[in-house]
Specification:
The complex is a heterodimer of chains A (299) and B (222). Chain A is 54% helix and 5% strand. Chain A has 299 residues and is mainly alpha-helical. The two termini of chain A are 39 Å apart. In chain A, β1, α5 and β2 form a beta-alpha-beta unit. Chain A has a 4-stranded mixed beta sheet. In chain A, α5 runs parallel beside α7 and α10 packs across α11. Chain B is α+β, with helices and mostly antiparallel strands and 222 residues long. Chain B has 2 domains: 98 residues, Glutaredoxin, CATH 3.40.30.10; 105 residues, Glutathione S-transferase Yfyf (Class Pi), Chain A, domain 2 (Up-down Bundle), CATH 1.20.1050. A 4-stranded mixed beta sheet of chain B has the order 2-1-3-4. In chain B, α4 packs antiparallel against α5 and α6 crosses α7. The N and C termini of chain B lie far apart (40 Å). The chains are: A mainly alpha (299), B alpha+beta (222). At the A-B interface, α4, β4, α7, α8 and α9 of A face β4, α3, α4 and α5 of B.
Chain lengths: 299, 222
């Protein structure tokens, strides 16, 4: 899987903007604790972001990174890995990690640990709306979870073969993400509200969401949710199933096809690898994570 | 012959309004079936028309689509309002997701408790002025083109202009320091299809009032 674009093209359009993300990084570097000396310098980030926003014209910018550039046209320039900026936890970035992992794409992560780091990203103009998740990929500084997910799904051919398949994937994913949003919210609520939310999650999973997907699988009898082919819908569904099972281990007891689906998708090699210890999958949020995020985002 | 798309919702803006805007901008005529009672909603559910028991639902091209994002994505693709490739689509998505976040805050305002209202309005004003409007102004400034993405009309422009009208209803002063947004609003409003939509008698719905909220509470039981 190749990423990024020849540095020469970018240098041509953007002066000496050093586009750090095009340099290959080893996975071990990515897994090491963030090192201040390796973090993008303010100038680099500012130039990167300035180039992204204020280059000759946005259209030319897209053309540079889009049609005019042939992948692998510059020998010796290694493909850049996507880089994820977020807290060291699941939150809104986890679905993105799943998608990248499912595609077998290595990625780097920079973990926000202080308010200062976060403010720096904001000041450097990397965050269009001042928020993370942020993913640097293919020369873009993408924010907004769904924008990132949709881009990656299309890029990895996880988005169906035509518009009709795509809309089905969108519907299934949106429903699943609604369920997951409730789970994501719960740790940040007061204890009484949290209990209510979690109870509601289980109730909705069993009464509203899981029956739909059980029926979809039953009606077509295929291995995957859409188009008899592994797609974003399957990845999102598995992630959701595992998250709900963490709250209530027997939640799939009335859904035999979803149970079989879970096993089947979990055994896809890239997913199997992601589900093993030592992968970049993050653990469920704990009190420390909640404090960290509350402090950094100041709420 | 393909029928017109049919929108199922109650007679108010809510989560269906951006869909109305997009269809209207694309010059697509549509029908609407309004839910007027809790029974109307139950019937749709019982007939198996609502995948997740929720509206909006749009009947289009032989499908019963639910989830506003899925519906908007479909319409935008079908009517070529979604950029020319996946990179343009990523930018459009990033922009429209930001718009949706602000839109949601204003959308939910009528539902908040009276004692919270002033705080929420202040938050909306602050985010509009310091986070959202500057972001879109900066995008327009960066390329100085007439449209947000790819020098071509896309859903991003239509959804932004809808948002600008929405914000204006809350506080007309917020757009005053954003000349490019003002220019975009004027330009997009003058597109023939949207000009028509902005006139009285179109399917555009009026601002939500207390009566709408009561109706929603009755139909959706909350």
């Amino acid at each position: 899987m190749t990423f990024g674009t020849p540095a020469a093209f970018q240098a041509e359009d953007h002066g000496d903007c050093s586009l750090r993300q095009l340099k290959p990084h080893s996975l071990s570097q990515a897994m090491a604790p963030p090192d201040a000396s390796k973090a993008p310098t303010e100038l680099q980030c500012r130039m990167l972001c300035a180039s992204w926003y204020f280059s000759c014209s946005l259209e030319a910018h897209i053309v540079v990174f889009g049609e005019r550039v042939k992948e692998n046209s510059e020998p010796g320039i290694m493909a850049a890995k996507p880089k994820l900026y977020y807290f060291h936890g699941r939150g809104r970035m986890e679905s993105i990690r799943w998608l990248l992992a499912a595609a077998g794409v290595e990625f780097e992560e920079e973990f926000l640990e202080t308010r200062e780091q976060y403010e720096k990203l904001q000041k450097d103009g990397c965050l269009l709306f001042g928020q993370v998740p942020l993913v640097e990929v293919d020369g873009m500084m993408l924010t907004q979870t769904r924008a990132i997910l949709s881009y990656l799904a299309a890029k990895f051919n996880f988005y169906g073969k035509d518009l009709k398949e795509r809309v089905r994937i969108d519907m299934y994913v949106d429903g699943t993400l609604d369920l997951m949003a409730m789970i994501m919210l719960a740790p940040f609520q007061r204890p009484e509200e949290k209990q209510e939310t979690l109870a509601s999650v289980i109730q909705k999973a069993k009464a509203r969401y899981f029956p739909v997907f059980e029926k979809i699988l039953k009606d077509h009898g295929e291995d995957f949710l859409v188009g008899n082919k592994f797609s974003w819908a399957d990845i999102q569904m598995l992630e959701a199933i595992l998250m709900v099972e963490e709250l209530n281990a027997s939640v799939l007891s009335d859904f035999p096809l979803l149970k079989a689906f879970k096993t089947r998708i979990s055994n896809i090699p890239t997913i199997k690898k992601f589900l093993q210890p030592g992968s970049q999958r993050k653990p469920p949020p704990d009190a420390h994570y909640v404090d960290l995020v509350s402090n950094i985002l100041q709420f | 012959m393909a029928g017109k798309p049919k929108l199922h919702y109650f007679n108010a803006r809510g989560r269906m309004e951006p869909i109305r805007w997009l269809l209207a901008a694309a010059g697509v005529e549509f029908e609407e079936q309004f839910l007027e009672s809790a029974e109307d909603l139950e019937k749709l559910k019982n007939d198996g028309y609502l995948m997740f028991q929720q509206v909006p639902m749009v009947e289009i091209d032989g499908m019963k689509l639910v989830q506003s994002r899925a519906i908007l994505n479909y319409i935008a693709s079908k009517y070529d309002l979604y950029g020319k490739d996946i990179k343009e689509r990523a930018l459009i998505d990033m922009y429209t997701e930001g718009m949706a976040d602000l839109y949601e805050m204003i959308l939910l305002l009528p539902l908040c408790r009276p004692e919270e209202k002033d705080t929420k309005i202040a938050l909306i004003q602050e985010k509009t002025k310091n986070r959202y409007f500057p972001a879109f102004e900066k995008v327009l400034k960066s390329h100085e083109q007439d449209y947000l993405v790819g020098n071509k009309l896309s859903r991003a422009d239509i959804q932004l202009v809808e948002l600008l009208y929405f914000v204006e209803e809350l506080d007309p002063s917020l757009i005053s320091s954003f000349p490019l947004l003002q220019a975009l609003k004027t330009r997009i409003s003058n597109l023939p299809t949207l000009k028509k939509f902005l006139q009285p008698g179109s399917p555009r719905k009026p601002p939500t009032n207390a009566k709408s909220v009561e109706e929603a509470r009755k139909i959706f039981k909350f």
